[in-house]
Amino acid sequence: MAEAVTGPEAYDAGPYVPQRAGLEELREAAAGCRGCPLYGPATRTVFGSGDASARVVLIGEQPGDQEDRRGLPFVGPAGRVLMRAVDEAGIDPTETYVTNAVKHFKFALTGRGKRRIHKPPSLRETAACKPWLDAELTLLDPEVVVTLGATAGKALLGSGFRVTRERGVPMAGPPGGAAPGGPGPVLVATIHPSAVLRAEDERERVYAGLVADLRVAAGALR
Protein backbone atom coordinates (compact mmCIF):
# COMPACT_ATOMS: atom_id res chain seq x y z
CA MET A 1 0.00 0.00 0.00
CA ALA A 2 1.25 3.48 -0.82
CA GLU A 3 2.04 5.70 2.14
CA ALA A 4 -0.01 8.82 2.76
CA VAL A 5 1.70 11.85 1.28
CA THR A 6 1.90 15.32 2.76
CA GLY A 7 2.37 18.82 1.41
CA PRO A 8 0.92 20.24 -1.84
CA GLU A 9 0.91 16.82 -3.51
CA ALA A 10 -1.27 15.35 -0.73
CA TYR A 11 -4.43 15.88 -2.82
CA ASP A 12 -3.85 13.12 -5.36
CA ALA A 13 -5.20 9.57 -5.33
CA GLY A 14 -3.14 8.66 -8.39
CA PRO A 15 -0.31 6.91 -6.47
CA TYR A 16 -2.86 4.58 -4.84
CA VAL A 17 -4.51 3.40 -8.09
CA PRO A 18 -2.97 0.09 -9.24
CA GLN A 19 -2.18 -0.34 -12.91
CA ARG A 20 -3.84 -3.05 -15.02
CA ALA A 21 -6.21 -3.93 -12.17
CA GLY A 22 -9.72 -5.30 -12.32
CA LEU A 23 -12.69 -3.82 -10.46
CA GLU A 24 -12.20 -5.96 -7.37
CA GLU A 25 -8.52 -5.06 -7.21
CA LEU A 26 -9.41 -1.39 -7.57
CA ARG A 27 -12.00 -1.69 -4.81
CA GLU A 28 -9.49 -3.32 -2.47
CA ALA A 29 -6.84 -0.71 -3.25
CA ALA A 30 -9.29 2.17 -2.79
CA ALA A 31 -9.96 0.99 0.76
CA GLY A 32 -6.45 2.13 1.63
CA CYS A 33 -6.52 5.43 -0.26
CA ARG A 34 -4.97 8.37 1.56
CA GLY A 35 -4.97 10.66 -1.46
CA CYS A 36 -6.71 13.53 0.34
CA PRO A 37 -7.61 14.38 3.96
CA LEU A 38 -11.23 13.18 3.62
CA TYR A 39 -10.19 9.61 4.45
CA GLY A 40 -9.50 10.60 8.06
CA PRO A 41 -13.00 11.43 9.41
CA ALA A 42 -14.85 9.01 7.10
CA THR A 43 -15.68 5.47 8.23
CA ARG A 44 -14.48 3.87 5.01
CA THR A 45 -13.94 4.32 1.28
CA VAL A 46 -17.19 3.83 -0.64
CA PHE A 47 -16.29 2.43 -4.05
CA GLY A 48 -18.63 1.89 -6.99
CA SER A 49 -21.05 -1.01 -7.23
CA GLY A 50 -22.93 -2.82 -9.96
CA ASP A 51 -22.60 -4.88 -13.10
CA ALA A 52 -19.03 -5.07 -14.45
CA SER A 53 -20.51 -5.12 -17.96
CA ALA A 54 -22.86 -2.23 -17.24
CA ARG A 55 -24.15 -0.28 -20.21
CA VAL A 56 -24.88 2.78 -18.06
CA VAL A 57 -22.69 4.32 -15.36
CA LEU A 58 -24.41 6.69 -12.93
CA ILE A 59 -22.05 9.09 -11.14
CA GLY A 60 -23.08 11.00 -8.03
CA GLU A 61 -21.26 13.46 -5.82
CA GLN A 62 -20.03 11.55 -2.76
CA PRO A 63 -21.34 8.94 -0.32
CA GLY A 64 -23.79 10.09 2.34
CA ASP A 65 -24.15 9.04 5.94
CA GLN A 66 -25.81 5.68 5.25
CA GLU A 67 -23.44 4.91 2.39
CA ASP A 68 -20.44 5.66 4.60
CA ARG A 69 -21.75 3.33 7.31
CA ARG A 70 -22.65 0.48 4.94
CA GLY A 71 -19.83 0.85 2.42
CA LEU A 72 -22.08 0.94 -0.66
CA PRO A 73 -23.13 3.85 -2.90
CA PHE A 74 -26.73 5.05 -3.23
CA VAL A 75 -28.25 2.86 -0.51
CA GLY A 76 -30.07 5.74 1.23
CA PRO A 77 -33.24 7.65 0.30
CA ALA A 78 -31.61 9.37 -2.72
CA GLY A 79 -30.56 5.97 -4.04
CA ARG A 80 -34.12 4.69 -3.84
CA VAL A 81 -35.35 7.73 -5.78
CA LEU A 82 -32.63 7.18 -8.38
CA MET A 83 -33.39 3.51 -8.99
CA ARG A 84 -37.12 4.20 -9.28
CA ALA A 85 -36.41 6.94 -11.82
CA VAL A 86 -33.96 4.75 -13.74
CA ASP A 87 -36.55 1.99 -14.06
CA GLU A 88 -39.30 4.43 -15.01
CA ALA A 89 -37.05 5.93 -17.70
CA GLY A 90 -36.64 2.56 -19.39
CA ILE A 91 -33.12 1.71 -18.20
CA ASP A 92 -32.65 -1.77 -16.76
CA PRO A 93 -31.30 -1.22 -13.21
CA THR A 94 -29.39 -4.51 -13.44
CA GLU A 95 -27.37 -3.05 -16.34
CA THR A 96 -26.16 -0.06 -14.35
CA TYR A 97 -23.11 0.71 -12.25
CA VAL A 98 -23.34 3.41 -9.58
CA THR A 99 -20.41 5.33 -8.17
CA ASN A 100 -19.42 8.78 -6.93
CA ALA A 101 -16.94 11.41 -8.02
CA VAL A 102 -15.57 11.44 -4.46
CA LYS A 103 -15.23 8.17 -2.55
CA HIS A 104 -15.22 9.45 1.04
CA PHE A 105 -18.03 11.11 3.00
CA LYS A 106 -17.35 14.77 3.80
CA PHE A 107 -19.39 16.05 6.71
CA ALA A 108 -19.71 18.45 9.63
CA LEU A 109 -20.81 17.40 13.12
CA THR A 110 -23.85 19.06 14.70
CA GLY A 111 -26.05 18.42 17.70
CA ARG A 112 -23.24 17.90 20.21
CA GLY A 113 -21.29 15.92 17.64
CA LYS A 114 -23.90 13.22 17.20
CA ARG A 115 -25.24 14.10 13.74
CA ARG A 116 -23.17 14.15 10.55
CA ILE A 117 -24.29 16.76 8.01
CA HIS A 118 -23.19 16.50 4.39
CA LYS A 119 -20.69 19.07 3.14
CA PRO A 120 -20.00 19.41 -0.61
CA PRO A 121 -16.49 18.35 -1.63
CA SER A 122 -14.20 21.06 -2.96
CA LEU A 123 -12.91 21.12 -6.52
CA ARG A 124 -9.50 20.16 -5.13
CA GLU A 125 -10.94 17.10 -3.35
CA THR A 126 -12.91 16.12 -6.45
CA ALA A 127 -9.80 16.40 -8.64
CA ALA A 128 -7.78 14.38 -6.14
CA CYS A 129 -10.26 11.50 -6.36
CA LYS A 130 -10.65 11.55 -10.15
CA PRO A 131 -8.01 8.84 -10.81
CA TRP A 132 -10.40 6.34 -9.22
CA LEU A 133 -13.28 7.48 -11.40
CA ASP A 134 -11.09 7.40 -14.51
CA ALA A 135 -10.01 3.84 -13.68
CA GLU A 136 -13.63 2.73 -13.22
CA LEU A 137 -14.76 4.25 -16.51
CA THR A 138 -11.80 2.77 -18.39
CA LEU A 139 -12.60 -0.73 -17.15
CA LEU A 140 -16.37 -0.49 -17.55
CA ASP A 141 -16.30 1.18 -20.99
CA PRO A 142 -20.04 1.99 -20.79
CA GLU A 143 -22.29 3.15 -23.60
CA VAL A 144 -23.73 5.99 -21.52
CA VAL A 145 -22.48 7.98 -18.54
CA VAL A 146 -24.97 9.95 -16.45
CA THR A 147 -23.66 12.65 -14.13
CA LEU A 148 -25.93 13.39 -11.18
CA GLY A 149 -25.53 16.93 -9.91
CA ALA A 150 -22.92 19.66 -10.12
CA THR A 151 -19.96 17.88 -8.54
CA ALA A 152 -20.14 14.87 -10.86
CA GLY A 153 -20.62 17.11 -13.89
CA LYS A 154 -17.63 19.27 -12.98
CA ALA A 155 -15.50 16.17 -12.39
CA LEU A 156 -15.89 15.17 -16.04
CA LEU A 157 -16.68 18.44 -17.81
CA GLY A 158 -14.69 21.02 -15.87
CA SER A 159 -15.44 23.81 -13.42
CA GLY A 160 -17.56 25.73 -15.95
CA PHE A 161 -20.24 23.00 -15.95
CA ARG A 162 -23.73 24.09 -14.90
CA VAL A 163 -26.52 21.55 -14.40
CA THR A 164 -29.28 24.00 -15.28
CA ARG A 165 -27.63 24.80 -18.60
CA GLU A 166 -26.46 21.39 -19.74
CA ARG A 167 -28.85 18.83 -18.30
CA GLY A 168 -30.75 16.44 -20.54
CA VAL A 169 -28.58 17.04 -23.62
CA PRO A 170 -26.51 14.15 -25.06
CA MET A 171 -22.86 15.09 -25.42
CA ALA A 172 -19.52 13.39 -25.96
CA GLY A 173 -18.39 11.58 -22.84
CA PRO A 174 -14.89 11.18 -21.40
CA PRO A 175 -12.23 9.71 -23.71
CA GLY A 176 -10.64 6.35 -23.08
CA GLY A 177 -12.28 3.06 -22.28
CA ALA A 178 -11.48 -0.59 -22.56
CA ALA A 179 -11.62 -0.50 -26.36
CA PRO A 180 -8.98 1.97 -27.67
CA GLY A 181 -10.16 3.71 -30.80
CA GLY A 182 -13.76 2.71 -30.23
CA PRO A 183 -16.66 5.11 -29.72
CA GLY A 184 -16.61 6.81 -26.36
CA PRO A 185 -19.68 6.94 -24.16
CA VAL A 186 -22.50 9.42 -24.53
CA LEU A 187 -22.73 11.68 -21.48
CA VAL A 188 -26.02 13.00 -20.14
CA ALA A 189 -26.10 15.37 -17.17
CA THR A 190 -29.00 15.66 -14.76
CA ILE A 191 -29.78 16.68 -11.20
CA HIS A 192 -28.78 14.63 -8.17
CA PRO A 193 -31.73 12.59 -6.87
CA SER A 194 -31.34 14.27 -3.47
CA ALA A 195 -32.72 17.40 -5.18
CA VAL A 196 -36.03 15.57 -5.49
CA LEU A 197 -36.09 14.93 -1.75
CA ARG A 198 -35.34 18.59 -1.00
CA ALA A 199 -38.02 19.90 -3.38
CA GLU A 200 -40.96 19.39 -0.94
CA ASP A 201 -43.93 21.16 -2.61
CA GLU A 202 -42.43 20.72 -6.11
CA ARG A 203 -41.26 17.13 -5.63
CA GLU A 204 -43.38 15.65 -8.43
CA ARG A 205 -42.19 18.24 -10.94
CA VAL A 206 -38.51 17.83 -10.02
CA TYR A 207 -38.81 14.05 -10.12
CA ALA A 208 -40.45 14.21 -13.56
CA GLY A 209 -37.49 16.28 -14.78
CA LEU A 210 -35.05 13.65 -13.50
CA VAL A 211 -36.97 10.91 -15.30
CA ALA A 212 -37.07 12.97 -18.51
CA ASP A 213 -33.28 13.40 -18.45
CA LEU A 214 -32.80 9.68 -17.81
CA ARG A 215 -35.05 8.92 -20.78
CA VAL A 216 -32.56 10.86 -22.91
CA ALA A 217 -29.84 8.56 -21.54
CA ALA A 218 -31.98 5.51 -22.31
CA GLY A 219 -32.44 6.72 -25.88
CA ALA A 220 -28.68 6.96 -26.32
CA LEU A 221 -28.11 3.27 -25.67
CA ARG A 222 -26.88 1.50 -28.77
UniProtKB/TrEMBL annotation:
<dbReference type="GO" id="GO:0097506">
    <property type="term" value="F:deaminated base DNA N-glycosylase activity"/>
</dbReference>
<keyword id="KW-0234">DNA repair</keyword>
<dbReference type="InterPro" id="IPR036895">
    <property type="entry name" value="Uracil-DNA_glycosylase-like_sf"/>
</dbReference>
<dbReference type="GO" id="GO:0006281">
    <property type="term" value="P:DNA repair"/>
</dbReference>
<protein>
    <recommendedName>
        <fullName>Type-4 uracil-DNA glycosylase</fullName>
    </recommendedName>
</protein>
<keyword id="KW-0411">Iron-sulfur</keyword>
<dbReference type="Pfam" id="PF03167">
    <property type="entry name" value="UDG"/>
</dbReference>
<dbReference type="GO" id="GO:0046872">
    <property type="term" value="F:metal ion binding"/>
</dbReference>
<feature type="domain" description="Uracil-DNA glycosylase-like">
    <location>
        <begin position="47"/>
        <end position="215"/>
    </location>
</feature>
<keyword id="KW-0227">DNA damage</keyword>
<comment type="similarity">
    <text>Belongs to the uracil-DNA glycosylase (UDG) superfamily. Type 4 (UDGa) family.</text>
</comment>
<dbReference type="GO" id="GO:0051539">
    <property type="term" value="F:4 iron, 4 sulfur cluster binding"/>
</dbReference>
<dbReference type="InterPro" id="IPR051536">
    <property type="entry name" value="UDG_Type-4/5"/>
</dbReference>
<keyword id="KW-0004">4Fe-4S</keyword>
<keyword id="KW-0378">Hydrolase</keyword>
<keyword id="KW-0479">Metal-binding</keyword>
<dbReference type="InterPro" id="IPR005273">
    <property type="entry name" value="Ura-DNA_glyco_family4"/>
</dbReference>
<dbReference type="InterPro" id="IPR005122">
    <property type="entry name" value="Uracil-DNA_glycosylase-like"/>
</dbReference>
<keyword id="KW-0408">Iron</keyword>
